[in-house]
């Protein structure tokens, strides 16, 4: 609804002519930045329009400090991806693919690093900032893993990144986070038991039988349990034999 209000006010002002770009050569990023700056310079007009079109309560929830630009086009160049990395603005590049007349795939070409999930949050929850490089505890945890566990970790990380060019891996304070258009998996390390915990954005109800009868107790429903990683299904890797099942779960979460 807020996006519709933005479209209405910018169109009325003669600014918004073609919000969806069919090619990668139409200065979409520059146009998006123009709209963003215009919005921030006309906060009062936008707030008033939201009050009229939606409700006064909706207007109170507008957070101009977190305004961001979503650029959707058929493709982007490496120069586009580099440009948003140095602009210091919250810009997301989203590539679309048409497969059927009524089937469209949206995939991340690049995403800002400002939106990260906090402990126990879901993929759509409000986020916490990334841990600065020197403050992550993950390298310290990795140094306490034995060779076998470290090899499993490397294999899982490599497999997850290989699922597609749209996979983004980030080392946060306590775990690795993987996202596509949204978070789909996290890897957390257990140094005392030399175990690796996967948290996956999958419905635990789909694995209810395994949760109840898995002799290795690898599966766990954590939808109502506080945890660090993103996802409601936990899978624990303690041996090489667990890797095949782990990879199948990661791929299922990646494909949504």
Verbal overview:
With 256 residues, this protein is of the alpha+beta class. It has 2 domains: 2-110, no CATH class; 116-255, Aspartate Aminotransferase, domain 1. The protein is built from 9 helices and 11 strands. The protein has a 6-stranded antiparallel beta sheet with strand order 6-7-8-9-11-10. Strand 8 and strand 9 (195-200) form a beta hairpin. Helix 1 (2-12) packs across helix 3 and helix 7 runs parallel beside helix 9. The longest helix is centred in the middle third of the chain and has 15 residues, at 147-161. It is elongated. The two termini are 25 Å apart.
What would the keywords be for this entry?
256 residues, alpha+beta, Aspartate Aminotransferase, domain 1, 2 domains, three-stranded mixed sheet, 11 strands, 35% helix
Structure summarized in a few sentences:
The protein is α+β, with helices and mostly antiparallel strands and 256 residues long. 35% of the residues lie in helices and 23% in strands. The protein is built from nine helices and eleven strands.
Write the layout of secondary structure elements.
Elements: H1 2-12, H2 28-41, H3 43-53, H4 56-60, E1 69-73, H5 78-87, E2 91-100, E3 103-110, E4 116-117, E5 127-128, H6 138-142, H7 147-161, E6 168-171, E7 175-179, E8 183-190, E9 195-200, H8 208-213, E10 219-221, E11 233-237, H9 243-255
Structural class based on helices, strands and sheet pairing: alpha+beta
Oligomeric status = single chain
How many beta-strand runs?
A: 11
Straight-line distance between termini? 25 Å
Q: List the uncertain runs.
A: 13-18, 113-134
Give the count of helical stretches: 9
CATH topology of the largest domain: Aspartate Aminotransferase, domain 1
The sequence of SSEs as H and E is HHHHEHEEEEHHEEEEHEEH
* Range of helix content: 25-40%
Rough shape? elongated
CATH architecture verdict of the largest domain: Alpha-Beta Complex
Sheet with most strands: 6 strands, antiparallel
Beta fraction of the residues? Answer: 15-25%
Trace the largest sheet across and list its strands.
6-7-8-9-11-10
């Amino acid at each position: 609804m807020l996006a519709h209000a933005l479209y209405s006010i910018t169109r009325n002002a003669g600014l918004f002519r073609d919000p969806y770009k069919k090619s990668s050569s139409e200065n979409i990023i520059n146009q998006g930045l123009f709209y963003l700056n215009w919005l921030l310079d006309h906060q009062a007009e936008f707030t008033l329009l939201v009050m009229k079109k939606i409700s006064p309560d909706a207007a109170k929830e507008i957070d101009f400090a977190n305004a961001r630009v979503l650029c959707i086009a058929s493709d982007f160049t490496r120069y586009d991806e580099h440009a948003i990395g140095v602009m210091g603005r919250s810009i997301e590049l989203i590539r679309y693919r048409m497969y059927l007349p009524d089937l469209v795939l949206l995939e991340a070409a690049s995403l800002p690093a400002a939106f990260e999930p906090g402990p126990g949050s879901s993929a759509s929850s409000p986020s916490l900032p990334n841990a600065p490089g020197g403050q992550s505890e993950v390298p310290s945890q990795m140094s306490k893993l034995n060779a076998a566990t470290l090899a499993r970790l490397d294999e899982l990380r490599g497999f997850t990144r290989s699922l597609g060019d749209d996979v983004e891996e980030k080392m946060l304070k306590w775990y690795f986070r993987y996202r596509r258009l949204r978070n789909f998996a996290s890897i957390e390390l257990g140094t005392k038991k030399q175990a690796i915990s996967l948290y996956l954005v999958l419905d635990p109800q789909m694995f209810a039988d395994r949760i109840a009868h898995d002799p290795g107790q690898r599966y766990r429903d954590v939808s109502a349990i506080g945890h660090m990683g993103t996802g409601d299904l936990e899978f624990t890797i303690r041996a090489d034999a667990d890797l095949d099942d782990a990879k199948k779960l990661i791929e299922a979460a990646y494909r949504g």
